[in-house]
Design brief:
Strand content: 5-15%
Number of helices: 16
Largest sheet: 6 strands, parallel
Bound molecules: carba-nicotinamide-adenine-dinucleotide
Order of helices and strands: HHHHEHHHEHEEEHHHEHEHEEHHH
């Protein structure tokens, strides 16, 4: 089976007709079809009965069949400049790549955080952000996240570029996967920003759920210690020792499990771990924004983490989509134009071509000299 032939048949017959031809008439194995499409199956897939892959194939076919087509008027860099100049409601999706020029490593680049995790002996790097593992042993997360703790590093030209969109009144929303909260430093307003995975801006005690500003725990993290809730520590110190009783009065009702004891009084930054619910704000906002946006810019992300990775495929097909990153987007996406390279450089070129260089340069200068002031100025610069 050749991929090009399969795709042609899918376009011609639709998903149902395709299934009839390949599974009923020709009796092919589902796994062979998925393989021919280039879908990666789990390592021990030969132990799984073929029929169990049917729903995966159905989802895959539906998604491929409904993929958007490239727009005929957005093909070149100059076309991007034109749509950007005309746009009134821009959605910007960002990832770790917009902060690497500030010295904050991303996950999946060659020298990213995932390439340096041998010492933790994790079966999957995403376990670093696994809430169950964190509750069992927060030291692994805290040891690794020293590098991610935000410092006053200013913001990148890409953050400044997004601020320019805001200052020009054309930023509909920034959906960021980043947890460094540099958007706030750059002066992106709260109602323009969805921090899809939360951020280090605040931290919450796992036991008493008291919330503190994130910076309160930064010195502990940087010193290589696990940040603890001062209130819970005091209560623990003052508590009478109760023989044979594991559960303490101020514990949660279900806190008698071993992991609850391990994480007693541990502060956790309010970033969303795997196994935790995303803030519902994300879903509500994107369902509204997708009907209003007239341009999507996706910057510095590998688009591997759902549900943010699903935004491009949720948009109406007529909305132009531009991808700016070092590496191309995956095969499951159809961006009209991919501008590959260092995003700070790409956005500078765009700003220059649209005539926004002066505004961008001013913001970049402001960020380098007095980052905190830049945030305050956000509502003043128009
Ligand atoms: P990722 O999977 O590490 O992908 C980043 C992408 O950006 C890669 O494809 C790189 O090629 C590209 N890239 C890196 N530097 C640049 C650059 N200077 N110019 C252009 N492209 C560049 O990270 P994603 O954001 O896609 O994955 C989502 C994860 C990463 C989220 O859950 C984040 O919380 C998490 N993360 C966030 C930070 C941060 O807040 N700064 C840092 C590391 C990881």
């Amino acid at each position: 089976m050749r991929e090009a032939e399969l795709r042609r048949d899918l376009g011609r017959l639709g998903p149902q007709g395709f299934l009839e031809k390949y599974l009923v008439d020709a009796d092919h194995l589902i796994r062979d079809i998925l393989h021919a499409f280039g879908v990666k199956l789990p390592p021990d897939f030969d132990k799984v009965q073929d029929i169990n892959f049917l729903s995966l194939l159905r989802i895959y076919l539906a998604r491929e069949f409904n993929k958007r087509e490239k727009l005929s008027h957005v093909i070149t860099f100059d076309d991007v400049v034109t749509v950007l100049g005309q746009a009134r409601k821009v959605i910007v999706i960002t990832g770790a790549g917009i902060s690497t020029s500030l010295g904050i490593p991303d996950f999946r680049s060659e020298n990213g955080i995932y390439s340096r995790l041998e010492k933790y002996h994790l079966s999957d790097p995403q376990e670093l952000f696994d809430i169950h593992l964190f509750r069992q042993d927060p030291s692994i997360f805290y040891d690794f996240c020293k590098e991610l703790v935000p410092e006053d590093r200013g913001y990148s030209a890409t953050h400044a570029f997004i601020r320019v969109l805001q200052d020009r009144g054309i930023l509909l929303r920034q959906y960021t996967q980043n947890i460094d909260d540099i958007e706030s430093t750059a002066g992106i307003l709260d109602d323009k920003l969805i921090q899809c995975h939360g951020s280090f801006k605040t931290a919450t005690c796992l036991t008493c759920h008291r919330q503190s500003p994130g910076h309160v725990i930064f010195p502990e993290i940087k010193a290589g210690r696990i940040p603890k809730c001062q209130t819970c520590l005091k209560l623990q110190d003052n508590a009478p020792k109760r023989k044979g009783k594991k559960k303490l009065d101020w514990d949660d009702q279900d806190s008698d499990s071993e992991s609850e004891m391990m994480s007693h009084g541990v502060m956790k930054p309010d970033i969303t771990f795997f196994g935790e619910q995303l803030d519902t704000k994300f879903k509500d906002q994107i369902l509204q924004d997708r009907n209003e946006a007239d341009l999507v810019l996706c910057i510095g992300t590998s688009l591997r983490v759902a549900p943010v990775a699903e935004i491009p495929n949720m948009m109406p097909k007529s909305v132009p989509q531009v991808f700016i990153s070092r590496e191309p987007a995956g095969k499951e996406y159809v961006f009209d134009v991919e501008l590959l390279g260092a995003c700070d450089e790409v956005v500078r070129q765009l700003a220059h071509a649209v005539g926004w260089s002066a505004a961008l340069d001013d913001l970049v200068k402001l960020g380098k000299s007095t980052p905190a002031v830049a945030a305050q100025k956000s509502s003043e610069v128009k």
